[in-house]
Write a structure and sequence with these properties.
The protein has 514 residues and is of the alpha/beta class. 40% of the residues lie in helices and 19% in strands. β4 and β5 form a beta hairpin.
């Protein structure tokens, strides 16, 4: 198998919007299916029903599997048939494999056209499954697609992939797939949207046009099309990730941050921020809040002057991403809480870990990934470059230990899941310098001559060095001085400021782009 199977998801859009998005999210986020299948939902149709049918059939022609979901309503008529019924007949004519899923038992009262469609299904003979809720629908769809991939291509999921899939289905919240008409597509933050689609599709931001952004957001379950109004709107997940102020729709989409002077909370924190905005940006604002309310000692390490962070930033960001991605959004009365104390940082997220994950398994680092909000988890992993979803707590532990600190503490309090990062306290010297913060690693230092090493020592002492310093202190010519300085700049250690002999060379900040 070389190319991914394109799965055309067909249904009456208005009635079964939640089911459509749930299927899309399943195929896009399941560890096995996402590697071999692509969900296709015709979300970009124009307002005219006739043109919509032409567009649907054209897109259907480029797919391999026709996945039909049938409910009560028959849908918009184009001639004698609904769009969905016309799609089904075209799929049959084209020889596509048909997978059908019927919502409700046989005795459910359905519209006359729907009854006729189901009778046609019975006569044609494709096997179909019934479901009662989105959990059952996901299980049936996954089982059908897994069997198809095995029968057609001889590929099957591993036992781990099956267990992860079942846990994700069991834990699935319907929150993120809700199709709301509160925030229109054009009112979302397009800078954040562009960033997401560029990273997810490995494309440059400047090559993405608006149609690319809309298609990319629809593919990831972040927008939906309302044929009644002819507008595209954000799903609940799209509002959380891309709305300029998600809390205007969901008050719980905020991070309440407090910084205290001591080791205990009080009524007068030294700093406070009610962080709102697209949640990927809110996470970075929370990181900035911690940065300005924690210590940053300077450390001389060899030929480096390094500004240390009191806590490893990557571990804090990982915890914030987890809090946003996996919190219980149905709890509309509580926000994510961020507390910075003199000896620790505490992050509290509403809701306990979804079953079967337990505190004991998290503490041992022996658990399989499970998310109640898989779309949010996947999209946030794109924003924050978290490539290996599911091992976040293990990474946090390793990052804290590598930083010279104790591992994070996991617990619960009053229905919140808490991650506590113990700080260095009075022993700030225990902090270790991460190698990535060193401009001059041992490998780089081995490339330097003695004059360049002395020049870096001068930069650490005075803040800069110049060609004139080389000539005066080391007794070399300006040509030699400039050659040595150019070499330090080419190694991305120093940056030149100014021109000619008046130019000064200063240290590039570790971690910044060369």
């Amino acid at each position: 198998m070389t190319a991914a199977l394109r799965i055309f998801v067909s249904s009456v859009q208005k009635e079964l919007e939640d089911e459509r998005l749930i299927v899309q999210n399943l195929v896009s986020t399941d560890p096995f299916l996402s590697a071999h299948c692509v969900p296709v939902l015709y979300e970009l149709e124009p307002a005219s029903p006739t043109k919509a049918l032409d567009g649907c059939l054209e897109v259907l022609g480029g797919c391999n599997v026709y996945l039909l979901i049938v409910g009560v309503q028959y849908g918009t008529l184009v001639g004698d048939l609904s769009i969905t019924h016309a799609e089904y007949r075209r799929a049959k004519e084209s020889g596509l494999l048909v997978l059908a899923f019927i919502k409700g038992e046989r005795q459910v009262k359905r519209e006359e056209g729907t009854v006729a469609l189901l009778a046609e299904l019975d006569a044609d003979g494709p096997k179909y499954k019934r479901f009662g809720n989105v959990i059952e629908l996901q299980r049936e769809v996954r089982a059908a697609l897994v069997k198809l991939l095995l029968d057609r291509f001889g590929i099957a999921p591993t036992s781990d992939e099956n267990e992860i899939a079942e846990q994700n289905i069991e834990a699935t919240s319907v929150f993120e797939s809700r199709s709301l008409n509160r925030v229109r597509w054009k009112d979302l933050d397009m800078d954040v949207t562009r960033n997401l689609i560029a990273v997810a599709e490995k494309r440059r931001q400047d090559e993405l046009v608006n149609e690319d952004l809309l298609a990319g957001a629809a593919l990831r379950g972040l927008v939906w099309y309302d044929p009644t109004s002819g507008e595209h709107y954000a799903t609940a997940a799209g509002i959380v990730l891309l709305a300029r102020d998600p809390s205007a729709v969901f008050p719980q989409c905020r991070i309440l941050a407090d910084a205290y002077r001591s080791t205990e909370p009080d009524g007068d924190p030294r700093d406070h921020e009610d962080i709102r905005g697209p949640m990927p940006l809110a996470i970075e604002r929370a990181i900035d809040f911690i940065d300005r309310n924690t210590r940053h000692p300077m450390r001389i390490v060899g030929l480096n002057r390094v500004r240390l962070d009191e806590y490893p930033v990557d571990a804090l960001r990982e915890a914030l991403v987890n809090a946003v991605a996996h919190r219980q959004y149905e709890d509309a009365g509580r926000k994510i809480l961020l507390e910075v104390f003199a000896d620790r940082v505490v992050l509290s997220s509403p809701g306990l870990p979804p079953k079967p994950i337990t505190l004991a398994s998290l503490r041992k680092g022996k658990y399989r990934p499970c998310s109640r909000n898989p779309v949010l988890a996947q999209c946030l992993s794109y924003f924050h470059r978290i490539e290996e979803r599911g091992s976040g707590f293990r990474r946090m532990r390793d990052q804290m230990l590598d930083h010279g600190l104790d591992q994070p503490l996991l617990g619960t309090d009053m229905g919140y899941f808490q991650v506590t990062f113990p700080g260095p306290g009075d022993n700030i010297e225990r902090l270790r310098v991460p190698e990535k913060r060193l401009l001059v690693t041992p490998t780089v230092e081995a490339k330097l001559n003695e004059r360049q090493r002395k020049a870096l020592a001068e930069v650490l002492k005075s803040g800069f060095v110049s060609s004139g310093w080389f000539v005066k202190e080391l007794g070399v010519t300006y040509d030699t001085a400039n050659r040595d300085l150019k070499g330090l700049a080419e190694l991305s250690i120093l940056i030149r400021q100014g021109r000619g002999r008046a130019a000064k060379y200063v240290l590039r900040e570790a971690g910044s782009a060369p």
